[in-house]
Design brief:
This protein has 101 residues and is an alpha+beta fold. It is built from 3 helices and 4 strands; from the N terminus they run αβββαβα.
Length: 101
């Protein structure tokens, strides 16, 4: 019986350590890391209706801006458009200037 209790204590200790690492560590990391306040969308200069284009008031409209606005609302982030040449779209995400294209 004593051997069983010893193994039970060791198992309990391992479970508690596992939970601390997997649950509490990410929570603490989120508290320490600065919160991101905006969602940066890299868009090409050339308009591509119906995906993205500018209306008469110089606002981006189309399918892509609607999706980006919905995502930014869901994540509670401000949406920022970054006009980018077509060849630099992927590079802007890799270089962390933009979050998505």
């Amino acid at each position: 019986m004593n051997l069983f209790l010893l193994h039970l204590r060791r198992f309990t200790t391992l479970v508690v350590c596992f939970l601390m690492v997997t649950v509490f560590n990410p929570l603490m990391a989120n508290e320490i890391a600065p919160l991101k306040k905006s969602l940066r969308l890299a868009v090409i200069y050339i308009e591509g209706p119906p995906y993205i284009y500018m209306d008469g008031s110089s606002e981006y409209v189309g399918i892509l801006p609607q999706l980006a606005q919905a995502l930014s609302r869901e994540l509670a982030l401000d949406l920022t458009y970054l006009p980018t040449p077509r060849k630099d779209l992927e590079k802007s995400v890799i270089d962390e200037r933009a979050d998505m294209t």
